[in-house]
Amino acid sequence: MTAPAPAAAPPGHPRFAVGVLAFCGVVVAIMQTIVVPLLPHIPDLTGATPAAASWLVTVTLLTGAVFTPVLGRVGDMYGKRRVLVASLGVLVVGSVLCAVSSQIGVLITGRALQGAAIAVVPLGISILRDELPPERVLSAVALMSSSMGIGAAVGLPIAAVVIENFEWHTMFWVSGAIGLLDVVLVLRFVPESPLRSRGRFDVLGALGLGAALVCLLLAVTQGGDWGWVSVRTLGLFAAAVVIALVWGAYELRVRTPMVDLRVSARPAVLLTNIAALLIGFAFYANSLVTGQMVQEPKATGYGLGASLVVSGLCLLPGGVTMVLLSPVSARISGRHGPRTSLALASAVIAVGYVVRYFTSHSLWAIVAGATVVAAGTAIAYSALPALVMRGVPVGETAAANGLNTLMRSVGQAFCSATVAAVLAHMTFLAAGRPAPTLGAYQLVFLIAAGAAVLALVVTLCLPGGRRGAGTVGGRRRNVGRTRATPIQEGS
Questions:
Q1: Residues 69 and 399 sit within 8 Å (Cβ to Cβ)
Q2: Burial 191-220 (b: 16+ CB within 10 A, else e)
Q3: 471: phi > 0 → left, psi -120 to 50 → alpha, else beta; which?
Q4: Pairing verdict, β 433-436 and 427-430
């Protein structure tokens, strides 16, 4: 068992590296949401069908789910900063493709490339673990992890403002420019981690994982349009199960697996990933229904008839709250352990949805409820990487956090399908057009609250203690059967 050598000093002040990586996470999260306000207009702007337009969101979910754990593993083996810069470069290329074309095929391709950049977050968390002293890791990782929620909260109002005041391609030119700025900042201020995992990259494991995820997420995201009991949907679900079983049997036999299932099956890791799925479900409902609810016409009896910009701004206080609460979550985790933080977060999210259930008629009350949910999400997203890192070897940090990020994405996919089904089936006529009933939105709140309560139960089942098999600080000992070896930067 080799102990990793001390990490090389960053080329700039460590505080800059933390800020740069968090900024990268925010930008990547914004990329995932900027097209949401644009979707209703895409058929008119491009001549595409509404079904084709929906792929501008679906394809980022698919590529993000497939590439996040894969690129995390590649980063652990061949250099985290190297892979992070490549991911940002792919985001820039995708943004430029979307900026120069109005053809739906090109737009979908560009959005697919943007989705692959979600791997930036687990890679950034792994770099912070490797480079920072133990006493700074929790707070830095909390900010890095929360950047996904922060970006999702600010992305909608930014996109709404651009759509209402500029030509729609402008937001893709801006996203490409910001992505390029990210690349420059990372090269200037973020060091390459000297830690590497030994072994060969598991190509078959990566392909098997990707195939299983594509089958599962295609069935979940398209099941509402195809029919949940259609041959295509059921066939994809069955294929996902079969591929996952074969893939799992293979991963248990290979020397350096894509996903170390023995480590992932440890209660500390397995339960954390289940909690991540539930938290992802609970959080995403807040983003999906808030804007739509306040835009519903006043004829519904509950809608406020708000503009696109106002609906996007409803989530902005939640984004600010997430920024402010990420260091608070780190202090709670440092003093009482990340399990306590995650339990508290789950309870806060559940309370937020109870507030939303009873206060759905005024703008300030809707914003207050959405902000409470965002506060719980901030604490949860800060605690999840700490729980993962205490249960996995140092050399598997990026891959393990990539898997945890993947579980959040799967939870969001299930949430999207659930919300769409509820709002589509509980409708009435308002001013001559169908609209979801107030009861439909309230049912969504109850389902999301239930997911948060389940996350609380799962969290309480986690093994106790403030440290697990691993360690949060990157300068401590390495554990587990996958070794991490120091390699000089640039090798």
A1: yes
A2: bbbbbbbeeeebeebbebbbbbbbbbbbbb
A3: beta
A4: antiparallel
| Pair of tokens at residue 424 | 């589509």
Walk along the chain (491 residues) in steps of 10 and give the mean pLDDT of each run. Answer: 42 70 87 78 83 82 84 84 92 93 91 88 84 80 78 76 82 90 91 76 88 88 84 94 94 84 84 93 87 84 81 82 80 85 94 88 86 90 84 71 82 85 83 84 94 95 59 44 40 34
* Phi, psi values for residue 96, rounded to 5°: -65, -40
